[in-house]
Amino acid sequence: MDSNAVLDLSMQALIITGKLAAPVLITSLVVGFAISLLQSITQIQEVTLSFVPKAVAVGIALLVCGHWMISEMVTFTHVVFDRIPQLLSGG
Question: Are 57 and 27 contacting, i.e. CB atoms less than 8 angstroms apart?
Fold first, then answer.
């Protein structure tokens, strides 16, 4: 296995990781920003107020995007398993 194959596989793994994490992270970011904006407008500085809406929003994001996330991960796993003979032969 040469270094180019390892770098290519690592790059694909990082890209799929970013794609899978994006819906949850973006949802959490948007909801957190909205809650903090609401807190600053109303001057309610309660730390626990932002946790429940974020948790609910992340749960909804996982319900909506979960099937896509699993199918992307299965596709990536199939690609990696299909490349095993090529990686082991070095060609």
Answer: yes
Q: Please state the pTM of the whole predicted model.
A: 0.81
Read off the pLDDT of each residue in 40-47 and give the average, rounded to a whole number.
83
- Token pair listed for 50: 């932002």
* Across 68-77, average pLDDT: 96
Q: Which residues of 14-48 are buried (b: 16+ CB within 10 A; e: fewer)?
A: eebeeebeebbeebbeebeeebeeeeeeeeeeeee
Tell me the domain boundaries of the chain.
3-88
For the chain, the first-to-last Cα distance in angstroms comes to 8
DSSP secondary structure, 2-15, as one string: -HHHHHHHHHHHHH
